[in-house]
Amino acid sequence: PTDDTSVLRTFVSSTPLGTRLNWNVVPGLIYQVQVSTDLQSWADFGAVRFATGSPDSIPLNPTNQKAYYRVIRIR
């Protein structure tokens, strides 16, 4: 709680190749992106991600349906 750089931060960005979910990582940890349409039930979105030492990101599916995304640390 005393290291403000250890807080997981996410943001969505638009690129010429589409919309991406971005987050900072801690090297050596494993993360999973999840998606929900109601903030109650969550499903894994893509494979687990092993942090190599730089920020990570994944492309988001362009749909007309409202969706919420979260990144959780597995280990």
Task: Describe the model.
The chain has 75 residues and is mainly beta. The chain is built from no helices and seven strands. It has strands spanning 10-15, 18-23, 30-36, 43-44, 49-50, 56-59, 68-73. The strands form two sheets. Strands 3, 4, 5 and 7 form a four-stranded antiparallel β-sheet that branches.
Structure keywords:
75 residues; mainly beta; 3-stranded antiparallel beta sheet; 7 strands; globular
Order of helices and strands: EEEEEEE
Strand runs, count: 7
How many DSSP H or I helices? 0
Biggest sheet architecture: 4 strands, antiparallel
Radius of gyration computed on alpha carbons: 13 Å
Kindly report how far apart the N and C termini lie. Answer: 18 Å
What share of the residues lie within helices? under 10%
Structural class based on helices, strands and sheet pairing: mainly beta
Pick out the low-confidence regions. Answer: none
Strand content: 35-45%
What is the 3D form? globular
What is the residue-mean pLDDT, rounded to a whole number?
Answer: 89
Oligomer: single chain
